[in-house]
Design a protein that fits this description.
Helix 2 packs antiparallel against helix 3 and helix 5 crosses helix 6. A two-stranded antiparallel sheet has the order 1-2. By secondary structure, the chain is mainly alpha-helical. It is 44% helix and 5% strand.
Length: 205
């Protein structure tokens, strides 16, 4: 590597080699950063905690560190996407990613935010702003609708009902907010669940 002038280009990471590779091929692979990558699909509707747990099962992230970054230190990503507050909930785009092993938690978050910016904000941002609602309001509503709808064709109707309740000053009374407040999914909510104390609970008395 020194003779070839490649020693300063060698990159850390996990690599895969085959027995028939010669020394020059090995050096070239490490110098080019051709690390082992895993294909991971983030399902729609996943919370930050669920995303972190999924990446942990693939050994691609420290679960607690990713949650800490995405939920409580989101302001450090303002250079990429302006998100109000510190939580990136709803902004980590659900998609299939090819993630190199040894990628940092921050890099993974940036990868997902970049996908959100490219696929949501860039094509739809101007339309959202002209509609009189902020990006954050629309993303929040989309998250509620995603969890409430059982079939795709139900989404527009559910969104209309929730927007109309907000316009009329009514309580949303949305089960999805209670599920989020509880911190875990229940197939069926009971009356006591609706009393959970949380700023996310839209059933308060």
């Amino acid at each position: 590597a020194k003779v070839l002038g490649e020693s300063g280009k060698l990159q850390a990471g996990e690599y895969e080699f085959t027995p028939d590779m010669n020394l020059l091929q090995v050096i070239d692979k490490i110098a080019s950063g051709d690390t082992v990558s895993l294909r991971v699909t983030i399902p729609e509707g996943y919370t930050i905690e669920q995303i972190a747990a999924l990446l942990k099962t693939h050994r691609l992230a420290d679960e607690q560190k990713l949650v800490q970054l995405a939920k409580y230190n989101g302001s450090r990503f303002q250079d990429l996407l302006e998100v109000p507050g510190n939580s990136l909930e709803g902004y980590l785009f659900p998609d299939t990613y090819l993630i190199p092993k040894a990628t940092s938690e921050e890099a993974v978050i940036r990868m997902m935010l970049t996908a959100f910016k490219k696929k949501v904000w860039d094509p739809l941002g101007p339309q959202m702003e002209s509609g009189g609602k902020s990006l954050h309001q629309i993303i929040t509503m989309a998250s509620l609708v995603e969890r409430e709808a059982r079939k795709p064709q139900e989404r527009s109707m559910i969104a209309a009902v929730l927007w109309n309740r907000l316009k009329a000053g009514m309580k949303l009374q949305c089960d999805a907010t209670v599920q989020y407040a509880l911190g875990f999914h229940k197939a069926r909510l009971i009356y006591d669940d609706l009393k959970v104390e949380s700023p996310y609970n839209t059933y308060p008395v």
